[in-house]
Amino acid sequence: MLVVNATSKQRLANLVKELRGERSQRSFAKLLRVSNQAVQNWEKEKTWPDEENLQRLAQLKGWTQKQLQAYLAGELQADEGVICADMGEISERTLNIQQLLAQVRMLPFQAAAQVAQAALETMAIRGEKAS
Questions:
Q1: pTM over 0.85
Q2: Angle between helices 6-20 and 36-43 in degrees, nearest 10
Q3: What's the gap between Cα 21 and its chain centre?
């Protein structure tokens, strides 16, 4: 269980801002199915998300719940492949794939569909070459 303190609230606020990117708090809140006031309070370090919302944030980042907890506890850097000892290490490539997936998950539907189409076309081409 994560102990919520000033440092973990600050790390959460930074993560929410990172995941939100250029989106408004309102549009990011819609993505998470929460109020824009909730997003605002997380970013201002006033409140803490419930477990369901923490899970959604972890998914957007491409992390497991355990990885998110490690990050919030200060045991994992958001942009590094280093994880606390009981989780081992993630390779640079795996982390980049997770970051890419997190970005795709945040795209509007049409843009995500274009990414999926490009992925399918790439797999088809590579499948033909392997045959």
A1: no
A2: 130
A3: 11
Amino acid identity, residue 98?
A: Q
Question: 89 forms bridges with which residues in the sheet?
Answer: 82
pLDDT tens per residue across span 77-109: 665 443 333 344 444 455 567 777 777 887 888
Residue 82 phi, psi dihedral angles, 5° rounding: -95, 130
- Here the tokens at position 125 are 């081409």
Query: Which contiguous run of DSSP H or E holds residue 119?
Result: helix 109-130
Give bridge partners of residue 82 from the DSSP assignment. Answer: 89
CA distance 95 to 102: 10
Identify residue 100 by its one-letter amino acid code: L
Query: In 3-state terms, what secondary structure has residue 94?
Result: helix
Q: Beta-carbon neighbour count of residue 9 at 10 Å?
A: 17
How much is the CA Rg of the chain, to the nearest whole Å? 17
